[in-house]
Amino acid sequence: MALRLTVGRRIAVLIVLSIVAFVLLGAISLSRLQAVQLQLRKLDEVSLAEVDISRSLSAELTGMRLETVRHIASRDPAVKQAAEQQVRKHRENLDSLLAAYHQLPLQAELQQKGEQFQSRLAEYIDAVSPLLAASKADPDHPPPVYNPKINGAAGSMGTLVEDMVKASREDARAERLAAEQDYKAAWGQMIAVIVVGVLVLLGAGYVLQRSITVPLNGARDALAQVARELDFTRRTEPAGHDEIADALQALDSLLQTLQRSFSEVAVQ
Questions:
Q1: What sign does the dihedral 125-127-131-137 (CA atoms) show?
Q2: d(CA 134, CA 136)
Q3: Is 97 in contact with 53 (CB distance < 8 Å)?
Q4: Closest Cα partner for 89 from 54, 118, 63, 116?
Q5: What are 162-205's pLDDT values in tens digits?
Q6: Residue ranges of the domains in the chain?
Q7: What is the CATH architecture of 37-179?
Q8: Dist CA 90 CA 173 (whole Å)
């Protein structure tokens, strides 16, 4: 038994296609937007945090070195006490920043630089502590500010911080570019799905329109010919299994009946 694809079913199919197209558009758009959201979240939580921590490390390191020089150069016990507290505070801030830096999901190379910085910081503190103690014990005869071990550790930390800041900026720039590319790709996919959906709907609508208007136009032409020429031999010969085909078959039956009736009248 052939499938009876009525006009109502065709319209239902068109509606279903419309719903599927919009659902597909929504699903693709949502997936792409979620990808962009993840990129932006990573940019906020990782890349920008990495930049802020790297800059803060540089600032704290500079502050600690300045306070160390102030402690050794000054002869005022109050100044030395304040400088010593500031050095301790900078050290605590550096430890906190390094702990936060290690918690970030960074590349192995950056994690290694953070560990190297922490090691050089420990060397710097070990070298500076005896100098600070000597400077505090004898303010009038402070030890020399220049110390190869201190300067070497400080220089290594400065280089490491510069590398970390540079790498963090590059990571943030790369994440930003990736987010922008994903955003553009999401818009491109949305437009592509919209275009495809519109084309599918236009094609389905055209097929639906043709399936209705073609047989109706044929019926109109047949009735016009019958009315004009009284030619009851004309048939519409409908194809399909819908309401329109049923109506055209009824019209053909009517024309056949009229043809037979007029033939019998002509014979008599």
A1: positive
A2: 5
A3: yes
A4: 63
A5: 888 787 778 777 777 877 787 777 777 778 877 887 887 788 77
A6: 37-179
A7: Up-down Bundle (1.20)
A8: 29
